[in-house]
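Honest question from a wet-lab person: if I give you the sequences of every part of a complex, can you actually get the arrangement of the whole thing, not just the pieces? Trying it with mine:
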Amino acid sequence: MKNYLFELKEGLLISLKAIGANKMRSVLTTAGIIIGVWAVVLMSTAVKGVDTSFQEGVASLGSDNLYIDKWAWFNNDIPWWELRNRRNIDMDDYKKFKDLAKLPAAVSPSMFTNQTVKHGDYTAEFIMVVGTTNEYVNTTNLTFSQGRFFTELESRGNRNVIVLGSEIANTLFPRGNGLNKHVKIKGIKYKVVGLLEEQGSWVMGNFNPDKQAFIPIGGLFKYFRSQRRASITINVRAENSAMVAAVNEEAIEVMRRVRGLSYKERNDFSINKQDGLLDIIDQQVGVIQIAGYFITGLALFVGAIGIMNIMFVSVKERTKEIGVRKAIGAKKRTILGQFISESAIICLLGGMIGLALAVVVAMIIRQYDFPMVIQVDAVILAVVISLITGVLSGFAPAYTAAVMDPVEALRYE
Amino acid sequence: MNIINIEHIAKIYEVGTEKVHALADVSLTIDKNEYVAIMGPSGSGKSTLMNMLGCLDTPTKGLYEFKNENVSQMTDNELAKIRNREIGFVFQTFNLLPRSDALHNVELPLIYSGMASYERKERAKAALESVGLSDRIHHKPNELSGGQRQRVAVARALVTSPAIILADEPTGNLDTKTGEEIMSLFNDIYEQGNTIILVTHEEYIAEHAKRIIRLRDGLVESDEFVKNRILPNGNKNVPV
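Yes, you can. This is the full assembly:
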């Protein structure tokens, strides 16, 4: 064992010398590996970033929530026309549901409308204005930087009060003095009673509370959307994740009673969960991953061929050297080890360069708010992948060197 | 003591359908502390015999015993071990590793024999000192003259204290004066009790040895002691 370690160490030293003698060539050879490792590290970093920010985003929405809706958000099992023909869920349904359901920790209605919100010369376009009740805040984990959510009184009285997500607040009030100011939606004045802290992330798209504004639901019906034509969502929060299943059961039961369905009829509502959102994120992540693996695989393959090629050249060039080494006592496995470790080191070098480039790019991307965190496993991945590529692509050239006839090799000019 | 014992060895190459007898039938013994030159015109089989003696190649037929061990049956790894410990090669073209300094070139055989770094550096330095290059240990081959390069090669051959030094045309790439210096070095090595086998086609170089084996057409043509051996000072001398 000690002997093998010794040979390994000496082999590595010899290889380092050989690489040092051909610096430029080694670096060029390793371009494929650099790109491959760069791609895989960057990809795994991006995937991890998306995952983390999604988890954080979901946490702000509350992960133990159910959303009773006319529409199935992520489910494609039910044909769309059947979904379309369902009766709208209205405020009466909500009130009945709220009275009958015993398990939920909180229940709130919500309805969206896309509006432009203005303050003086500042405008925030395509804002998802959520109409809801004061209880909405209990069905989420929203946190406030200033002010509060609207009260029960304001909610029932449908007062013109509004709570702004952090991004909107930043747009409309760049100096951060939005509290108690007025904003206008379609010319209707709303008083800002609360500003949210930054909650979610871009990953969540429209679910990101940073891009939402909240007003009492009655006002939404009055000014922006007809109550008769639109269907609301009932937000149901379970006490904790262990309760979600039971709350779900009960919600189906209660909703069927509220909607007056006979036992023969199918549910004319859907109970949505964020798991569905997770699926969509997984799909996005999956696309990144497939692209990443493809680039990585291709680059590593090209890189491996490059390394193999240059190692064959190197072996040929150093035929005489191999002959000399054999003459003075290098065994087959010594020569094999020498060339394999040479190729492994070249690849490792490439891997390190790729890793460094990935770190740089990750840092640049992070400037644009894309969550990038270089993971330890990405570093390990880079090292392992480049080592394996090096060993695999070095094997064939090393083997030809190892089995060379010393007499022939010494005669080679 | 008998170091090399060869009995009826032959080396046959197949070139197409034809069989070429590089060595037809050679028998000889070489004792410890002999100074032997192997001579012959090209095609006589002297290179093949040298490869055989140097354990770089194995005979097709016959017996080769090195220190009473049968080399003819050895595996590649066993041959490598014998070459590493028992044989010191000196080549016509020096065959140093061009990118390594003198010290590394000399310690290379010790690396392959598994000696620890400190000890092998000490021994390599000592070997370089013994060939008069103690002030050149960190020079690379291209920073050394031809004679100095061959001295490094000799140091590399000596560093493992091998049973035989096998020199293949060691002066072939050197001018006469430098060649004479190298031959003088070989004489010193011989007088320290080493066994030297010199392969050459130059009569003048061969006469530095004490015994000349002449080959022709794969057979031993003659095997006799040198009457007027050339000594380092260039004078011919009647052997003792």
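Two things worth pointing out. The mean pLDDT of chain B is 90. The first strand of chain B starts at residue 2 and ends at 15.
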